[in-house]
């Protein structure tokens, strides 16, 4: 079987357009979170509920294919999310209200668990692969460009930290497991899985779009830039006056 014949390759091609839109939105939203812990925390909050649901559903369903896709116990992220949320949003982070988009997302997952549990694997595959890919890039950017604050110094984000695991090897094992699972699907089941994969990115976009705080960050950045500009103008004016 060639690379183009793999089910994961088919999914990547079928979701390329919506995936690209999703990447652009996430990068635009969370680039600003590099300078504001509350915004980063808001992003973690919405995705926590999705990852937590999927991991809890895995235990409830106890399906062989569900278990197979979790190729390494390091993939479990629920507790890591909770530790990060306590750090960024405070110990009472669970009282944070959910957006309508997030409530709808959770309701959709609940419906799938009841009616089409195998389709939950589409969410597991794309979300965990995203954390192993784009999530790692965002984590590195936060370390490089994040604003240094007293509370932030020395803290390592747990949700994107996979210790000494070889990420590339883990992604390879993850994709292989997905391809093996797909071999037991009928063509109709594969088509439904790919269709649901597009839904994954669409619903991710909706909850990311509801993460607040970006306007505040932009205002703070504008204020700091304006202050620097005024200082520069003042220096130039003083120099001309005394020239």
UniProtKB/TrEMBL annotation:
| Family annotation (SUPFAM superfamilies) | Heme oxygenase-like
Task: Tell me where the transmembrane regions lie.
Answer: 38-54, 120-139, 221-239
Q: In which domain of life is the source organism classified?
A: Eukaryota
Q: Which CDD domains match?
A: HemeO (cd19165)
Reactions performed catalytically: heme b + 3 reduced [NADPH--hemoprotein reductase] + 3 O2 = biliverdin IXalpha + CO + Fe(2+) + 3 oxidized [NADPH--hemoprotein reductase] + 3 H2O + H(+)
Family matches, as InterPro entries: Haem_Oase (IPR002051), Haem_Oase-like (IPR016053), Haem_Oase-like_multi-hlx (IPR016084)
Residue positions binding heme b: 12, 19, 125, 175
The molecular function GO annotations come to:
heme oxygenase (decyclizing) activity; metal ion binding
Which Gene3D superfamilies does this entry report, sorted A to Z?
Heme oxygenase-like (1.20.910.10)
Keywords in alphabetical order, please: Heme, Iron, Membrane, Metal-binding, Transmembrane, Transmembrane helix
Q: Reply yes or no: does the keyword Membrane apply.
A: yes
- Sorted alphabetically, which Pfam families does this protein's record hold? Heme_oxygenase
Give the GO terms filed under biological process for this record: heme oxidation
Q: For this protein, what is the EC number?
A: 1.14.14.18
Similarity comment: Belongs to the heme oxygenase family.
What protein name does the entry list? Heme oxygenase
Q: Which source organism?
A: Papilio machaon (Old World swallowtail butterfly)
């Amino acid at each position: 079987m060639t690379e183009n014949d793999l089910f994961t390759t088919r999914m990547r091609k079928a979701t390329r357009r919506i995936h690209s839109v999703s990447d652009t939105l996430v990068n635009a939203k969370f680039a600003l979170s590099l300078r504001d812990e509350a915004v980063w925390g808001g992003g973690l909050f919405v995705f926590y509920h999705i990852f937590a649901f999927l991991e809890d559903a895995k235990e409830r369903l106890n399906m062989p294919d569900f278990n197979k896709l979790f190729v390494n116990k390091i993939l479990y992220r629920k507790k890591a999310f909770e530790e990060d949320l306590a750090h960024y949003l405070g110990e009472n982070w669970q009282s944070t209200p959910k957006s309508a988009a997030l409530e709808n997302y959770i309701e959709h997952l609940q419906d799938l668990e009841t009616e089409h549990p195998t389709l939950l694997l589409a969410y597991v595959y794309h979300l965990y692969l995203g954390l192993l890919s784009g999530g790692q890039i965002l984590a590195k950017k936060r370390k490089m460009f994040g604003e240094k604050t007293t509370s932030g110094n020395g803290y390592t984000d747990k949700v994107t930290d996979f210790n000494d695991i070889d990420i590339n090897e883990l992604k390879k094992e993850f994709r292989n497991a997905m391809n093996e699972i797909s071999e037991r699907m009928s063509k109709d089941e594969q088509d439904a899985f790919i269709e649901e994969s597009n839904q994954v990115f669409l619903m991710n976009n909706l909850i990311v779009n509801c993460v607040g705080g970006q306007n505040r960050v932009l205002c703070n950045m504008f204020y700091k830039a304006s202050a620097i500009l005024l200082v520069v103008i003042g220096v130039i004016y003083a120099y001309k006056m005394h020239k």
